[in-house]
Design brief:
It is built from 4 helices and 13 strands. The protein has helices spanning about 1-20, 140-150, 155-190, 215-250; strands at about 25-30, 35, 40-45, 50-55, 55-60, 65-70, 70-75, 90-95, 100, 105, 115, 130, 140.
């Protein structure tokens, strides 16, 4: 009986997914059911809570997994957040692995509609989300992508390059922090040279023998290492994009 129930649920989910023709507007619910509509609009209700309207039907966002309208294809990120707040990310890459980036809302004057703004595709990073098909979206991370790309060795190579690049970038950041601390220690050490710490100071400070060259040199090294860490990690993020692109093409 249990097996029959599982088979029935699987068939129901497959049937729901087969109905998702992306040339039409639809709302895809967490229950795997699909609502088709001519107009799908995101808007606040009378108490200021966000709701989705599919024609005249009000759809609570807690039930919405994805929706598709003339603006694009959007995924609810509520299950990836600590407090379960509703927020939407737009799909910017479609394939065997879909990639989503978060977008903000903007009211449209004289229209009963809230559009999305800041929709320019950004560089792939761990601030984004991904999924396969209509499965739950996940935060982009090395560990999760490694599991979902296990059947593509070339993509795994790119992910490994990402991991090593991130680690090296972190080493550069830590070294930059050590260098800036050393520069501050040297700066204050030089500043205390020649200061009379006796109970009866003579009133003069001997500035001879002070040199802040080492401090400024360490500060410069720290800045260079920080920039290097940023560039290294930015380059590492591009390896994620290449991993996804390779996976989608094979």
């Amino acid at each position: 009986m249990k097996k029959l129930l599982m088979i029935a649920m699987a068939c129901y989910a497959l049937n729901a997914r087969s109905q998702t023709d992306e040339s039409r507007n639809f709302v895809y619910l967490y229950s795997d059911s699909v609502i088709h509509a001519e107009r799908i609009r995101l808007r606040p209700d009378f108490v200021g809570s966000w709701v989705l309207r599919a024609d005249s039907r009000r759809v609570p966002l807690e039930q919405v997994k994805f929706f598709n309208n003339e603006d694009g294809f959007f995924a609810n990120t509520r299950r990836t957040t600590i407090f379960g707040s509703n927020s939407f990310s737009e799909r910017i890459i479609k394939g065997k692995i879909n990639l989503f980036q978060e977008v903000a809302y903007d009211p449209v004057p004289f229209e009963d509609y809230y559009r999305f703004r800041d929709r320019t595709p950004r560089a792939v990073s761990t601030q984004m989300y991904y999924n396969k098909g209509f499965s739950d979206i996940k935060k982009v991370s090395y560990a999760q992508l490694k599991m979902d790309m296990a059947d593509n060795p070339r993509s795994l190579d790119f992910l490994e390059s990402y991991r090593k690049g991130r680690q090296f970038g972190t080493v550069l950041y830590v070294t930059a922090g050590v260098a800036i601390l050393a520069s501050l220690v040297n700066f204050f050490s030089e500043g205390n040279k020649g200061v009379d710490h006796s109970p009866f100071p003579s009133g003069g400070i001997n500035t001879s023998g002070k040199s802040y060259t080492a401090s400024f040199l360490l500060m410069g090294i720290s800045g260079g290492l920080a920039v290097g860490g940023y560039l290294k990690q930015a380059a590492a993020n591009r390896q994620i994009e290449m991993a996804i692109d390779t996976y989608n093409r094979n």
